[in-house]
Request: fold
Amino acid sequence: MIETKGYAALAAKKPLEPFTFSRREPGDEDVLIDIRYCGICHSDIHQARDEWGGSAFPMVPGHEILGTVLKVGANVSRFKEGDTVGVGCFVDSCRSCAACAEGLEQYCENGMVLTYNGLEKDQETATQGGYSTRIVVDHNFLLRVPDSIKPEEAAPLMCAGITLYSPLKHWGAGPGKKVGIVGMGGLGHMGVKIAAAMGAEVTVFSHSEKKKDDALAFGARAFVAGMDEATAASLAGSFDLIVDTVSAEHDMNLLLSLLKREASLVLVGVPEQPHKIAPFPLIGGRRNLSGSLIGGIAETQEMLDFCGKHSLGSQVEIVSPERINEAYERVVRSDVRYRFVVDLAPLK
Ligand code: NAP
Ligand code: ZN
Ligand code: ZN
Reply:
């Protein structure tokens, strides 16, 4: 077994603490990775605090993993020792259902194997994430990271990057399209950069004025702080697509009213409580309310190559493992510019 040091939540709403555990010995299809950086996604906090229900403990969170290949199994030819690689939100899937056959492993009908807070295919071994020194992953679920992005700035692409790239691409963000990004945190700031690089005209909706200069620097053309009825009325019916990344309860009905006829508001943020949706903004313009979950392996690789080509990394603040709990508090207060990334070196 591979002795691994990490940081774990031992119970819901308890601070994370040092935790030692074992990873499986790499098999013929596996790659052993030395983890260098791991992003802190708001989903880590939701799960470590059991805000969505069903969390299993002890839990080593982390699904924005960036590392270096230490060893490859006998059947692995796509990766070699020394390669820079990424691991995202899942590490396996059934590989045979219709979703998997289409490369949409995130919608696997038999349930993907989550990188942490899940069970391996044996249905017994708990998976553990990237706030740790090493991980063993099947090479089919591993991503190649372009050299043009700094490793610490590439780590957040494994979740924040793909979670925005996938809906932006699916719903056609590009030249001539007016796209709204709601909430400019870890996900949202990557959404602004990616949508702008796709050629769309981007507006950021934020709950305060504080992030305006950054939004414009990331490529947004307009910024709306704390939207009221008058602002909503002035923008009504003008957006082709809005992607909502907000992690807390908020009013979605004003956002729906901003869409053109038949355009979509896509939810990616996951607040604890259900949203209240008024029927008229939806019915009025035959508008769509949709959702989107991360992205499949092939699309995640496509996103990494796109970000590599456009030099799109995340804006990060590096923290050492013993500051993870402090970082969690700051993420919840929206006090992060724009992603915390844990440097695992001090644990080694
Ligand atoms: P984050 O960095 O905390 O960003 C969330 C943003 O929401 C904040 O920066 C803030 O933006 C806004 N916000 C926070 N509290 C708010 C409030 N009370 N009222 C209005 N706006 C508020 O989180 P993240 O890592 O980007 O994740 C965002 C959400 O997406 C989380 O719920 C996470 O679980 C979920 N998620 C979903 C997927 C998926 O596949 N669908 C993948 C990853 C994460 P402003 O300061 O600009 O207002
Ligand atoms: Zn995430
Ligand atoms: Zn499947």
